[in-house]
Amino acid sequence: MSAVSGSVSTAVSHAFADSATMLRRQLRHMLRYPTLILTAAGVPVVFLLLFVYVLGGILGTGLGGPSGGRDAYVNYVVPGVILMTVATAAQGTAISVAIDMTEGIVARFRTMAIARVSVLTGHVLGSLIQTLLSIAAVIGVALLVGFEPTADFGEWLGAIGVLVMIILALTWLSVALAMVAKSVATASNMLTPLMILPMMGSGFVPTDSMPAGLKWFADYQPFTPFIETLRGLLMGTPIGNSAILATGWCALISLGGYLWAKKLYNREPTK
Amino acid sequence: MTTDLGQPAVAATAVRKAYGDHVVLDGIDLDIPAGSVFALLGPNGAGKTTVVQILSTLIRADAGEMRVVGQDVVRDPDAVRAAIGVTGQFSAVDSFLTGQENLLLMADLNRLPRAERRQRSKDLLARFDLEDAARKPAATYSGGMRRRLDLAMTLVGQPRVIFLDEPTTGLDPRSRRTMWEIIRRLVTDEGVTIFLTTQYLEEADQLADRIAVLHQGKLVAEGSPEELKRQFGGGHITLRFADPRGYDHAARTLDVVSRNDEACTLRVPSQGDVRSLRALLDWLDHASLTVDELQVHTPDLDDVFFALTGNPVMEQEPAR
């Protein structure tokens, strides 16, 4: 009995140690190629600037708030851009997992006595850190262009918590999708819809302004409760049942993505 | 985990593997003594890599009993993984990391005591002549350097059985010789068992204590290089006669493998030993035949391969 629990606790401590090692590997990659973070932050920043300066004047007035205009739109659009950052970073994760799977190094890991899922856990934790850094960069730019969050300390913590939850969900999903893809290019393409979803939700304009069919989709897809929860925490808008929906979606996507990724990783290489 | 010396490093019986209708392995038996070098020889696509993948727990066989260092490959893969090292055909290094970081990664994953990790990686960098490149990303390494780093990473965990899947494929002749030297030293200095696959007959001849030839899913021959050459070798002596009369006489009298009437040359079988050579010379003397040129072709593994599979090595590349 004690031998069994002993071997279980050894296995658990090995899983932690191996995941930590694999995380260090990812962080080294990141330090060697910091452009990855800049790329993940760059696309959303460009969108932020485009939407605020090109479209923001009109869109802000269309929001119908008391102030209107560009200033109101910055505060509206930032949560959507943050979600777009998460999606862009998830695409980066998919590419890096796909590269790993095509290299011999994973075959080496598979023939070593290490916790099997640690390769994937390392990727997910590395992506989590990388995505949070990218989001920090995006928020930095947003503050420069007039973003004025109303959140207090507790709400900031809440927002970070929600983001961690969303990042973990989308990252596990992208890891699984990357392993379904047979090539790096396919992996990258498979994640593209994820970048469109914030736009087809409440990220850039309220869903009320959309045609009926699209509004229905926008109201029920997971990005809308993600964005509404984040917006509520940062800007003090009503959250309603968004937080519960967001948590549910995250739990579902995380668990599904994790189990799927694990199954795909344990599948025999076909070659 | 103590191992008695009599226990084979790798033992397998009736291993089968098919992908759909395509039977890759059709009942393979292996018995490899600890501390020896075993070479699995076969052309591209013969299934050599499949054997390595099965024994190294990467894929499962459809049937068969397999043990590596006494541990069951199917029932206790982690015990097998802890005792083996695999260096594949496509080098398994992390191109984004430096040589040193790759070795430290292996040291961490092998859970070496903390104090030993740096020392072990330093020793291996020195041993594999990678000190100058230690801080450069592996992506910048040449083919030979990558293979050396790859093997160094395999050695971090001090495996008792090392699988080398075509370790020198694609290397230039000089890097190949370096690699052979490294492999030889592994066996003599550390007493590890080496399971080598190769399509190069010379490589098997150079390194292996025992060779098995894999052809169409079966091991069609097994033995030491010398045994195989003796058994299947097509060693021969080529004689070029000065005149057609002598050529005709010899062609009628001797046991001839092949003849070329225009060039007046005959091939007679020989294992390349002095006794049979002397007998042949005596016979020529006795018959007063003039031979302009004599060439002794000692049997090599090319002959063995040809005799066993009916094809020169490089010409058979069956579809996968």
Could you describe the 3D structure shown?
The complex is a heterodimer of chains A (271) and B (320). Helices cover 79% and strands 0% of the residues of chain A. Chain A has 271 residues and is an all-alpha fold. Chain A has one domain (29-266). The radius of gyration of chain A is 20 Å and the shape is elongated. The relative contact order of chain A is 0.13. The mean pLDDT of chain A is 89. Chain B has 2 domains: 8-93 and 141-230, 3-Layer(aba) Sandwich (Rossmann fold); 235-298, 2-Layer Sandwich (Alpha-Beta Plaits), CATH 3.30.70. In chain B, a hairpin with a 2-residue loop joins strand 4 and strand 5. In chain B, helix 3 packs across helix 4 (114-127) and helix 8 crosses helix 11 (301-309). The relative contact order of chain B is 0.14. Chains A and B meet through helix 1 and helix 4 of A and helix 2 and helix 3 of B.
Keywords:
A: 271 residues; mainly alpha; 11 helices; 0% strand; B: alpha/beta; Rossmann fold; six-stranded mixed β-sheet; four-stranded antiparallel β-sheet; transport (chain A)
The backbone outline of chain A, from C-alpha atoms, is elongated
Major sheet of chain B: order of its strands? 6-7-8-3-9-10
Question: Whole-number average pLDDT of chain B?
Answer: 86
| Helical percentage of chain A | over 70%
Helix content of chain B: 25-40%
- Which residues of chain A sit in consecutive blocks of at least 5 with pLDDT less than 50? none
Largest sheet of chain B: 6 strands, mixed
Query: What is the global morphology of chain B?
Result: elongated
The largest sheet of chain A, given as strand count, sense and whether it forms a barrel, is: none
